[in-house]
Amino acid sequence: MFYHDNELQYEVEVEEPDPQFAKMLQEAIGGVEGEMRVALQYMFQAFGQPKERQEYRNLLMETAAEELGHIEMLATAVSKNLQDAPEEMRREARENDAVIDAMMSGGQPRQALSAGLHAMPVDANGNAFSGNFIVASGNLAADMYANIMAESTGRLLATRLYEMTDDPGMKDMLAYLIARDTMHQNQWHAALEELGETLPVPASFDQEKENQDFNYEFMSTFREERENPHERWTEGVSIDGKGEFSFGTQPGGGNPQLEKAIEQMHNEASQAGGSMGDSSIDDTSTNE
Amino acid sequence: MFYHDNELQYEVEVEEPDPQFAKMLQEAIGGVEGEMRVALQYMFQAFGQPKERQEYRNLLMETAAEELGHIEMLATAVSKNLQDAPEEMRREARENDAVIDAMMSGGQPRQALSAGLHAMPVDANGNAFSGNFIVASGNLAADMYANIMAESTGRLLATRLYEMTDDPGMKDMLAYLIARDTMHQNQWHAALEELGETLPVPASFDQEKENQDFNYEFMSTFREERENPHERWTEGVSIDGKGEFSFGTQPGGGNPQLEKAIEQMHNEASQAGGSMGDSSIDDTSTNE
Amino acid sequence: MFYHDNELQYEVEVEEPDPQFAKMLQEAIGGVEGEMRVALQYMFQAFGQPKERQEYRNLLMETAAEELGHIEMLATAVSKNLQDAPEEMRREARENDAVIDAMMSGGQPRQALSAGLHAMPVDANGNAFSGNFIVASGNLAADMYANIMAESTGRLLATRLYEMTDDPGMKDMLAYLIARDTMHQNQWHAALEELGETLPVPASFDQEKENQDFNYEFMSTFREERENPHERWTEGVSIDGKGEFSFGTQPGGGNPQLEKAIEQMHNEASQAGGSMGDSSIDDTSTNE
Amino acid sequence: MFYHDNELQYEVEVEEPDPQFAKMLQEAIGGVEGEMRVALQYMFQAFGQPKERQEYRNLLMETAAEELGHIEMLATAVSKNLQDAPEEMRREARENDAVIDAMMSGGQPRQALSAGLHAMPVDANGNAFSGNFIVASGNLAADMYANIMAESTGRLLATRLYEMTDDPGMKDMLAYLIARDTMHQNQWHAALEELGETLPVPASFDQEKENQDFNYEFMSTFREERENPHERWTEGVSIDGKGEFSFGTQPGGGNPQLEKAIEQMHNEASQAGGSMGDSSIDDTSTNE
Amino acid sequence: MFYHDNELQYEVEVEEPDPQFAKMLQEAIGGVEGEMRVALQYMFQAFGQPKERQEYRNLLMETAAEELGHIEMLATAVSKNLQDAPEEMRREARENDAVIDAMMSGGQPRQALSAGLHAMPVDANGNAFSGNFIVASGNLAADMYANIMAESTGRLLATRLYEMTDDPGMKDMLAYLIARDTMHQNQWHAALEELGETLPVPASFDQEKENQDFNYEFMSTFREERENPHERWTEGVSIDGKGEFSFGTQPGGGNPQLEKAIEQMHNEASQAGGSMGDSSIDDTSTNE
Amino acid sequence: MFYHDNELQYEVEVEEPDPQFAKMLQEAIGGVEGEMRVALQYMFQAFGQPKERQEYRNLLMETAAEELGHIEMLATAVSKNLQDAPEEMRREARENDAVIDAMMSGGQPRQALSAGLHAMPVDANGNAFSGNFIVASGNLAADMYANIMAESTGRLLATRLYEMTDDPGMKDMLAYLIARDTMHQNQWHAALEELGETLPVPASFDQEKENQDFNYEFMSTFREERENPHERWTEGVSIDGKGEFSFGTQPGGGNPQLEKAIEQMHNEASQAGGSMGDSSIDDTSTNE
């Protein structure tokens, strides 16, 4: 279960409020690379750990709760970028509707219209956060790769945001979040190391059951057949150490040869069965 | 640009059509772990490669085109599971509406209602494929982790499907797809190896700019402070070799202390400023 | 503006309630082929007609209001299939929770859980209706084709539903709805006829500005070059009467040759610029 | 910021695992009436409270953290309904693929395919949780009504789930969740009482600016004009005490009279301007 | 069933077209606080009323039809803000493509690209209207709270839009819509009053079945245990008059103790069962 | 199966990069009128063709592969509009963060934040591509109308984009795409011609089963009954040649008369059954 206190996890200060940057920060809240995704992803992964894997449940839940605090920090940053205008600017706003226009032409309309100048569970383009972003597959190795990916795109996003602001408060907050993403990338790699031999994921599927003619062949789909380009992925021992890379082309499996669907589907396009002359249809349609 | 021919990439045969398995197969077409995702993900990643990275563009495009062929195979498998009923069953279907009911009680309604007993760009729960599934971040290392994750959850899905069918044709098709996922996991790992030192992603961000007090600390959020559990992720050299893991707690950053939004937002809940007695509001609201 | 009265547009009777059919009927309410789509589509098209096109505004609004009545009919049909169980069945339901299970195993969970055994604005797979289904392009010819398509897939859906039920009340209701779709297909074709020469849509774009080397050529993308198959679409006068069909292949436009993005995007995957040896990167990255 | 410990908030026991009930429970996790919605809604509302409203920030955050614990309980309940099959059933599962089929025909495919028999952030129909479910308007009175509504539909859902299971463990868990919803409905009503005079929301908008001819009139849209039905909402003093209910009809505001869009939009449907004979277009189109 | 006529419900005039305001108005059409939501919400609630509740069906349908007219008004306002530019501006537009750019830099791209400068069924951020916005729970008390909430956030939105425009026509239209929201808030409160004792919703669930140890306790989740803050929601009689508020903490329910999923799920992360040394797995995995 | 080569299908050059136009181009990639939709739509239609319809499978697949090449062209155009800034601008960008701001104020945030200045599978408003856009109904006539509609709105979009740019490279690319849409409109019309008599779609449903009183009547829903306006759609022979248009009004089908749902749904709003005095509920609720 969960607890909270009244403090932010780390200071959030904004010197010069910037409504446009408030829009950008939304990506780090409700975007596919954002904190809602990782907080909930680690939580759902933790929820599914069996009792034998209490260490992993702990590991995931510790970081899930940390990420909830990042949502709070970023939401605070959005509010401060939208609201903490200096007093004269705020006074002026009361007298001059044009200020609202200025705040919004470069901002995200719904931060004002739907949230009264606060953060929302949406991304920088204004799309709602989706449960589809969350990966909790039941297999820890697959999940660790999902987490590494999430922290990689998350840190990439944070560095891009860092480049887009000159505000010292925002740079300080982002430097903290970037540091945490460094740690999280490392900790998920560490967990993967602890899990032992995990490739190919899922490791518990007996590779003798997979088609062994094609499990280590790089398959070229180039229109004209190419020579083996002698890349790391076309020759030599495979990364999982269980095969030898080779270079080939698509095997080909014949034309699909589908039957028609049953008549009740009314897939027949024309009354006469069309111009295609397949008289066999007439035979059956008379029984209808 | 793209080309096609009339053959499937690999044979798709169904001995005993099973509408319920047709529903399950949808996950491998339009699901987050499915083939539409990887085909389009590799394609969009390829589209963004600069001219200096032609090898990577090739690598990605070769596999993108391969994955398109997997969509075709799986769509064919869906149609065959829904339609290739033996002749007597199909004849009976014409006379007996109850057969339709039987086909659908365990199936996915829209495969019949919207697609005339064919595959759709949706997952096994019936949700539409979404462009949100696609990750093409502009950074190849982040993208390779996204690809490893996609092939890990993809192979996991395929092995689960393999366990759920006894049809030899379906098992053969899935054994092929599982093998290809083995290769694809290996090839993206190989690409990552070729890229060199990529951690923490993005490697081009100068780590001196990140907050160096917190970039290798495991942050416990346990309610009661815990001892260092001496895990791989709480002590010793970090996986990227650039730091030393430590164990700590959330630093704390004070209360957020937000200002009120401008009056035009009408965030004030009550006419008298509520029961909270914050008289400072009256000062400003009289100017309104 | 709009009005209503207390009657359904046409009788809706259910002799034998069938929760599974209630699930199927959802497609005709909130599905892409359903009545919410056409009602709102015709409404938004009407809303955008300029004052010179009052006849078309009328035409669209007349049918929009009719379609609203179809939503009401279908919602009533859903409720009756879920609720109008005979008295003994309903009495039993009060005593025996298993009846609820039976009603739901073949039904759609949210019709019970979220709507208390009533219709919802979702499709047969349970996906919410989306504003994305609505096409109102501002160009009447494009809109008329969107309407013909909507009524074609709508009538196809209704005929499939007709085949799936034996209930005389449901068959009667569907026979009415199928008839209306016949009329609506005809009326949108009639509107198109009245609009005059509309091909290619939009007709107001001067065809001399389009690339006249490729505007009537069937472009084969077959891997191996094919002979002209002499189909209606590969030779002879075009359907719009403004060109001559021909048969060719993709022209080819060279390699895309993209530049790298600015450094602040942190697209660089590795610290050394990767193993790809593109020394040009070093030049710029040292300036960073 | 947030913390966690290793315990559930309340016991979750399942005596007889029921995969179909696991599907139903999803509505209480990721559905619009579910716990993800309230946890995140209260959190975002808390994030936006100005420093003068610390009591309300506390109130909201206390309950947000409580609701996170409900997600954990329900996710545990899903896993136990899918997995805690008795030993013989689990042993049999290893030998008999048909058991998987049985577990899934009545369940939700993605709980198996995507989550390895665990909970997902989706509803009972399988739709992903959406940030769109979350209401945090910036105005506390509007938010309190959103919360009362959320707890009303939430408790309604929980009572429906209670009726659908005979498992004593599940009934005990739901009796706890229903009790909490009782409290939460009461606490949001209490907060509203404390806020004072809040109607009509937002109370800070000067009612003299709204159209005072229509602000307390019940507007009948019946096709034939009706008599005042003398309901509570058609006569007598209004609920907010600021007006007198009356009964009337829609005022009517003339035909919209839209101009045509600029030519670059290509809204013109036909080459001759269609059959509508508005010659004015010819004048301008010749300049194009 | 439904009817329409040629008039708007109320005048819609725009003196100075403003494409940016046209973007904002979208929130009132297709946003979660918008008119499509309430029109369809009241309609679906009406569709589900049993024959004993004809007054409520009438009440809901009267207002549903009114709200349809509001969509029409707002769509007209969007078109007029995008199109009714004065003649010189329109003439100039024909000669100068830059005007299009100007119209769009501050506007919503799809209003031009997809709708030819007309309204769309989307919100101000450009997200499509979703059936998920609609609440029709089957329980009238829950629905009335959903309606009060919808009209509260709807009126809040309308007042914010009112503050953002100086156009007298737009202010007049919004003053009308704000007035109608005042009435609608009042009428749903009146309906709730008529329904009698409705708390806690649903009132028909016997409270003796809910867990009576926790149904009126405010549950603090603060990390450090707090004293009772003596708020309206922590002591005294509850709002529903059926309990006494108290103040406590989360009860705690032990560790979840999940079993592992069946082997066919391939949840095992590594070939050796990982580094976790749970030998029990080896026993079963040898049978595989 | 599919193949590719290294060339674009047609040249893509940008003289003056324009981030705002890059945003607009997204509509042609991931929008409902865009190339992802048609590529995948034709592909799914092809996948479902039975073996008797190989010509149609070929026709569809030829164009599907062509459309994939259009996605590549447009993605290249987006990258070039975002990145191919002249050298001084790019150098300046390294020194001056303000340039990033300039690139983004008029652009789409996620093209930078999520894609590193590349194309994404989203539309111009930033919404993700959805599988819901794809129509593959199983009936070729319905599908051909869906294709004509897609190419009509697609060409309309392309002409609007053509009007919004002055860049010669972009105009040349769009002139090519507009030409291809001309051809595609023509080829789907040609396919429809070949199919023969297809109206009303689906032609295989026996029209004697539809309600013949209403299948050719234009149904006016005007509040006051109107005279027949003598339009093409209210009199004369119908377009399908199978009926005679007439003019009438909605038939009316009585009040819906729904029963109450079973008690376990807890649809009852109040404890006393509300103010509606339906005593019959008390009888049953005592048995509960």
Automatic annotation (TrEMBL), chains A, B, C, D, E, F:
Signal peptide span: none
Basic and acidic residues bias: start-end ranges: 223-234
SUPFAM superfamilies membership: Ferritin-like
InterPro entries, per the entry: Ferritin-like (IPR012347), Ferritin-like_SF (IPR009078), Mn_catalase (IPR007760), Mn_catalase_dom (IPR039377)
Pfam families: Mn_catalase
Region (Disordered): 223-288
Source organism superkingdom: Archaea
Family, similarity comment: Belongs to the manganese catalase family.
Protein name: Manganese catalase family protein
Organism: Halorussus aquaticus
